[in-house]
Design brief:
116 residues; alpha+beta; 5-stranded antiparallel beta sheet; 3 helices; 39% helix
Length: 116
Amino acid sequence: MLTPCNTSITIRERLVRCTRALAVPVFTGALTACTGGTIASFMPGQTITVEGVPFTVTDTAGGVTVRNFETGFTDPALLLSYAAIAARRVTGCPVTNITKDTGVNTYRAALDCPPS
């Protein structure tokens, strides 16, 4: 039986098989590192987690932009409500309206903040 690193094959073949054997775990680890909270920590704005889902909240004209880096396992309606919670927690202001941009996990939240 041949194992990925069988010694009865040429060095080139051994290298190819060993590389293939390592590719899936390495790719999976890299993908995991590049999702969720890791990406949020590199994005502008304040990072906050709501129910285990990472967001960033950034001031914009008329409210805030909330970005989510969830990998697609959470219901979109639930993510929308979490985005509103994130906006409220970061700003301390009630959210009067929140919408999701098409195709991406970016939300625009209008706020009812007292004048500063």
